[in-house]
Amino acid sequence: MKARQFIPRNSCLITILLITVLTGCGSGSDSDDTSGIASRVSYTEPLQGDTDVATNSKFVAYLNELFNSSGTYLFTIKETVSGDAVAGILKFDSVNNSVRFSLVDGFLKTGTDYTATLTTVVNGVKSATTWHFTSGSGPDITRPTLSEVGPTTPADNQKDVSVNRGVSALFSEALDPNSLNSDSFIVKTTDNVRAAGVITYANQLVTFVPTGYLKETTEYQATLSTDIQDLAGLSLATPYSWSFTTGIIVAKGPAPVVLRTAEDFTILAKAGITNTGLHLTQITGNIGASPISPAFMDDVYCIEMIGTDSLIYGVNSFYSGGTGGTECSRGDALAKTKVDVAILDLGVAYTDAAGRASPDYSEFGAGILGGQTLEPGLYKWGTNVVINDDITLDGTHKDVWIFQIAGNMALSGKKHVLLTGGALAKNVFWQLTENVALGENAHLAGVVLAKTHIALWPSASVDGRLFSQTQVTLQDNIITPPSQ
Predict the structure, then answer these.
(1) How many domains in the chain?
(2) The whole model's pTM is what?
(3) CB within 8 A of 102, min separation 6: which ones?
(4) Which residues of the chain carry a pLDDT beneath 50?
(5) Domain CATH code at residue 198
(6) Whether residues 121 and 160 fall in one domain
(7) Per the count of CB atoms within 10 A, which of 151, 278, 378, 390 is most buried?
């Protein structure tokens, strides 16, 4: 995430360089050896592989380290086929740790593949990051808005808000981070006292993180001004405000992972959802798969989808199902968009969870868990994790657990992850680089964000969500989304 500290403008040290990028500029820089050097870029806007990019967009690369004013930063954009360079102006911001490329001529060519490269030389060490995107049919003429799904946290008029949690807004598109400051995002009490804090921005999510604690049992108003702009320079049409009231609880553990539209689903997978056994599975909530055909969810029958609001979303209408017909499936254009976006948001959530730094516990129990009570916090393992006996997560309804596992996780048969003290499954996140296996009659609480396969043995149950970047396998299981 990128942080912008609230400090007076006249004392804000920002390094701004304006460089005209001429056609052919940097034409040989890509051939220099950067092997073995890690990328200095955390993420980009647009992302790698994005299509239909507005022809009047700006382009931003966010650094994963502090901007170094003595370093060299070269940002080029070229047509992939012809190699012709695009003329632009670079803006370097040491506060935001970003490099922004603005078009000189105003517009990219339509329907064209482009290659962007950020080459950096810092302390004599060179690194180059390259990504590709394709321009759309024209410029962006739509003003940014807030997302239709969970636009703000806390929600408008929410009570009992933790005094140490951030205030965030999710937008419909990427923003120009340089438009985010103490005047464009204000959090203040109803008697007009501004809260001090830091703004972070990542993947359309803007968050005000208070410095210290907000006042207890106090009503606050958050306001987003029309100074906020998207990457095409279009601003909010009108200011947006919402209110919330703090409680007295200081939440423990890291900030929760924002699931965005993925929260509309109980199970998501990229390569299908299989279901074996006697078809006694019970799923409450939506399931979906993309980009694979919904035919790879045929083993989940409509009779196993509990309630009329539990639907199967696919990228087309090829779901055939079994007993119970196909009335629970949706495969039209709107359904495709819904599941496609949710899969993208799954990836954002995974990256967020995996990127959390400064764990409270490293290699806890040497990866062997059972019989312990775990307090809220960020846990990190560089090994597989085996839960061979019941474990308890003890905390309040505000507390958060994130488990980062660089390997597989196995929950043994008839063993349970238990929640006590008011802890909620929606605030528990299991992020894994490999597979998850839940044994027969085992019970897991929390949101699973797995890089690969999630497999449930017969009668295993989940109070949470199962999100896989490959496949989910069910066998007569009960899957219930976490209470809100």
Answers:
(1) 3
(2) 0.83
(3) 58, 88, 89, 90, 91
(4) 1-37
(5) 2.60.40.1220
(6) no
(7) 378
